Task: structure prediction
Amino acid sequence: MTSKISVKNVFKIFGDKPGHALDMLKSGQSKNDIFEATGQTIGVQNAAFDVKEGQIFVVMGLSGSGKSTLVRMLNGLIRPTSGEILIDGDDIASCSPAKLREIRRQKIAMVFQHFALFPHRTIAENAAYGLKVKGVSSDERRERALLALEQVGLSSWADSLPADLSGGMQQRVGLARALATDPHVLLMDEPFGALDPLIRKEMQEELLVLQRTLKKTIVFITHDLNEALMLGDRIAIMKDGEIVQVGSAQDIVSQPANDYVAAFVADIDRGRVFTAATVAIEPSTLQLADDTAGDAVRTMEEENRSAVYVLDGEDIAGVVTYQQAAAADRDSGTSDVPIADVLITDFPTADRDTQLADLYAPASSGLPIAMTDADNRLIGVIEPEAVFAQLSADPATPDTEPQVEADQRELAPTA
Amino acid sequence: MSPSDFLIIPFDDWVNFLVRDWLVPNFRPIFRAMQVPISMVLKGLDDFFAFVPMVVTTLVFALLAFKYAGRGMVIFTILGFAFIDMIGLWPETMTTLSMILTSVLFCTIIGVPVGILAARSDLTWKIARPVLDIMQTIPSFVYLVPIVMLFGVGMAPGIIATIIFALSPIIRLTNLGIRNVRTDLIEASTAFGSTPMQMLFELQLPLAMRTILAGLNQTLMLALSMVVITALIGAGGLGLTVNTGLGRLDVGGATAGGVGIIILAIVLDRITQGLGEQKKVETTSLRQTLISLFKPGAPAPAHAGKAA
Result:
């Protein structure tokens, strides 16, 4: 995967004399000092990140943290004071207005917090706006707009006016308008912020479903950490115009860069952030044909486990618990009780991306959970204790070194 | 003791010099040429209204009133116009109407583009604003004099005076309407790569239309009050009737002219107001109603209700 968007050392200073303020900022003075000395407001300072193709990159921050300014710089609605913003190698920060217009028409579309639908145009005309601006013929325009409306489930409303639609539906039109031009990059500025919680949840899920087929590069702005954690492949947390941490949801929850981030993540539902893969361990297994109950007992004793999985060739045959294996071994008096006699074939499973929240029930059965791949092969084992340990881990212990560079790490799967 | 003990400023002499000795001899041909398009439009309209029978004109206005102002206005239009005809002022009223329409036409041609420019650049608006203030507040009698010197007397100079007087609201409200288009809509339009022209025609003008039409209504009302005054510099119409009545202390004649003006004012005001409000309320068109009446099973004209 290559970088679709690359933001380098971007500063934005609002005011009439940004030059001096920029120098002060670079010499390390604080936002408030600069405002008092020069009257210039710092919007964004030293933002740097890359967004890979097909990724959802979430920028999270409270109001005034500069997140909306940041996203508006990505399509040139706001020009940065200094720095580079590369989209497919073209610098948005310095290109000519004509070039910028071309990039906006071909590559970037935006969804707005308050929908920003044109009230005097029908839903279909709204959805077709980007195409109209591009000069697409009216028949093709309508056809593509209807296609986009179909994707968001609103094709039957094509000839209504925006005022006839509810908020959630209006935002779907906003999304359809952005999708109709088939852009590479989708900028979403708190798109679900103005919707009520149930509709918001529904829209978030729908966006993820759409993204599975569309594979757009999405920059998503939100002030809601749960939304960020749910949607984001990678998340940047902003405070006072600065990006304080960039990383995956799990990075941010497990290794908050500073107290600010730690305070944020303190209340979130860890069960929804961590997946089975984060707590799974390398399995030691037995073979159904070769091993006996005695072998199982020995293996478990050596590794200090209470159960072990048994394979039949490559497939999972079942699980053996220490209690049963040891009892069978003792009762028979011999050491070659076939393992099949003590096999439990009804064992809990999960896949790599199962959320820990969904592992509560299987974990409470006491059996280790088998983590399987798409072909139903065992790729890891999750001990019930590990699930509860991860869920109860104290998140309010930030690492001593800041994690801003954490984004440089490749997001390698953990197992 | 007062400042005049120390210095007397011959302000009137300066203005005399500026207008009489510099503007008039040097620029008179230009000012004369400016009248040509105005005279052409005015003559066209005047001939047109003189040619069309009174009944037809009344019918057209009644229809406009029906479309934009409701049933009550239809009755008022028919009765009012009949009254004007019966008191013998129909030709004068039509002359006044042509003068108003000509002034408003030129006000629109000048005012809308200037308003758009003013909305787009703060500098233009900063320059335009005091000029508009002066144009609106300066007593109309004051600039009738330089107008007569530069343009002469007659209909066209009267209309030029009217244009100057009535231009202000349409510029102001065009500017206001365009500036008031929601910024997130402007952002959205920009984000999809609109050129400034596309944004103007796709978004700003349609959304500012109601405000612009309100400006048109104001301009029309100002034009109406001014065309009466321009009778002083030789323009015709109902103003002349009032003016003549005033000169001869003929109360009846002056009142008749005044009533004519009032009737015309009410009809024009209501129709243009309705024009602006039209955009807001979505009503079922007459055509749709007829279709649903005669075609069984046709969709009801009532538009879809708000969705949950």
